[in-house]
Amino acid sequence: QLFLGQKDYQQCMVIKKLVSLKNYKLELKIVPTVRENNGLALSSRNTRLSAADKQIAVRISQGLFIIQKQIKPGKLDSLKLKIKKDLEENGLTIDYVEIADTLTLAPLELWDGKTSIVALIAAWVSDVRLIDSLVLS
User: Fold this and answer.
1) 7-58 per-position pLDDT tens digit
2) End-to-end distance of the chain based on CA atoms, in angstroms?
3) What are the angstrom distances between the C-alpha of 68 and each of 27, 49, 86?
4) Distances 71 to 39, 77, 119, 122 between C-alpha atoms, Å
5) Rounded to two decimals, what is the model's pTM?
6) pLDDT band at 6, cuts 50/70/90?
7) Contact by Cβ (8 Å): 45, 33
């Protein structure tokens, strides 16, 4: 068995596909993200963050939870832009704020309300790159 954390959602899906393509006799278990009390996803990279940086970094998970609450079928650009702007205004440098198909990881501009989706954020706090994800449906 191989246990992978859902925080690294894209990595999980790549490994899942590789296991399938290579017919490895391996049971892949994707486990929920473990979070600190404030919502920050646990990561070995967090040890490189100062206390002030951690207060900034928690905005990443807050952004994911806002997406979860506010997402609705239709165009997704304005919601992604809103979260990106909020993160930038609160001290993060954004690599991406994305909503993607859970199976293909294809970014979505339009959501039909039925397709299983995941919200994905990668951002820099000081010199530390953090990622987080949240399966939405």
Assistant:
1) 888 988 999 999 999 999 999 898 999 999 999 999 999 999 999 999 999 9
2) 25
3) 29, 26, 15
4) 19, 11, 10, 19
5) 0.90
6) confident
7) no
**What gap in Å lies between CA 83 and CA 127, rounded to an integer?**
21
Long-range contacts, stretch 123-126, CB < 8 angstroms, 24+ apart: 123/60, 123/87, 123/92, 123/93, 123/94, 123/95, 124/92, 124/93, 124/94, 124/95, 125/49, 125/53, 125/56, 125/57, 125/91, 125/92, 126/49, 126/50, 126/53
In residues, how long is the chain? 137
The per-residue pLDDT of the chain, averaged, comes to 95
* Predicted pLDDT at 7: 87
